[in-house]
Specification:
With 284 residues, this protein is of the alpha/beta class. Helix content is 34%, strand content 15%. The strands form 2 sheets. The protein has a 7-stranded mixed β-sheet with strand order 3-2-1-4-8-6-9, with helices on both faces.
Amino acid sequence: MSNWYVQYMTIYGRPFSEVPQEVIDGTRERLARLQSPQPLASIVVIAYNEETHLQACLWAISEIQCKYPVEIIGVDNDSKDRTAEIYEKSGIPYYTEYEHSCGYARRCGLQHAKGRFYFDVDSDTLYPPHYYEVMLDHLLKPGVSCVSATWSYFPDENHSKLSLKMFEMARDLFLWIQHFKRPELSVRGLVFAYNADYGRQEPYRVDIIRGEDGSMAFNLKKYGRIVFVRDHRCRAITGYGTIGSQSMWQSFLNHVKIQMKGITRIFHQTDHYQDSEDNLVKNK
């Protein structure tokens, strides 16, 4: 299981001009075979200037093993690099969203999705072959409105496997404790899926910089439970967008400092959140 993503890493982080043609052609052929005219789920890949990651993400998706019918669509958030070209050459339907933010991009995908269930997919993230099938197994259970899974980071020269393992164990433990009373705070967009009909009744927040998926999960609670899937077959792997070049130790300390502010909140449910000023989108 630990090596499932190795082949995709051969092009992850590389410009599109360096991707072998056989990878592009093979991805296109496999994606075409996966597309269903009557999908149970829509796998929606959003991207903004993700030329160096998108092809690897689509390659991984093209090799999924799923017993349920799916469609794969893309949203280009008005990228300035070759992101749109990658979508074009992949053969999947894609749409351009000119307003910049994850909220706008995910909302665009939801507007075009045909599936009963909607999968958030970040283009800098790779998903294991059984990810969609296992997540759908949970989504189809009675009383479930949405599901969220776990994720890991790629080991690299700046982050050892041991430090990553320790960091992820501590983070996952905290998210697990938090999910009992504040499940919406433990949801992360890169590993989130939900009932699309419910989602269309609770529009995506586009007035905030981050947290649009947690906000969606919070609103979906009225329709059913938020389920957290702790299954190695659903553990995605991603880059260091939320960590950057920091050491894992420094990132761990920063996360502890942030989470310790008002830590008692995780032991109490709430029906309201107050947006912080620094997370609001400023009017142009």
